[in-house]
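Kindly review this record before class:
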Amino acid sequence: MKHIYSKLAVALGLLVTVGLSDGNAQCNNTIPYGNAAVGGTIFCQYAGEYGTWTGLTGGSVYRVTSSVTTDFMTIRSGSPGGTVVAMGVGAVSFTAPTTTTYYVHASTNCLCGTANACRDITLLASTACNVPSSYGSGNAPTTSTPVTLASCAFAGEYATMFSTAAFTGYTAASTITTDYLTIRQGSPSGPVVAAGNTPLNWYSTVSGTYYVHTASNSSCGTSTTCRNITMALNSCTTPPPPPAPANDLCSNAQALSIPSTVSGTTINATVESPA
């Protein structure tokens, strides 16, 4: 029967920690529930539990979905508390870095919330597109407000995103809701990071330049209808820290008149020894 162990734990007065966050909204649940292979479903998993998944091949693209579309999903490899390979809300796409066992941690939110209510978790293989034409570019967002990488893009084009932070969750989206997106890293035809229908939640593992390939469907269809391609920082991701202030060194100190008012910050400023 479902979750007898947790009910017994409560009855015996045991205190069990079922969900922990190890930073940047990466959940690490401690209660196992269910096993399945790629293409299957773990039925009636609770938020605060993790499911075990087999049959994933290194280099292949997969997509995890929850029947509770607001769930926050964390995917780990090798062990239940292993390396985080992806995270996001509702539906998350990722490329398996190695052929091993994967663990899908379900939470009600990015604070690793729990709930004793059923949700069905499905893991499916995805296809990836590699379109030929470049159109549009921009810097990675630093907030959950979307930035536009390409205006009036066509299906069959890719947009370039610079200054992407490492270990960060993003959401790519097209204004045509049936579009299929593929994220590649390093070069336009580089390794696939994620692929799936818009909006696409994905996770960067290294900093640098990424490419958003737009297709009209999972068969990599093309279309000359305009759509906008946007990117947002996942709402559960901590924004990257700002750079050091411009006058970080004593040699660049800004002279102030008295009285005067100036604005500034000491965030990420370096420490210099007294002269």
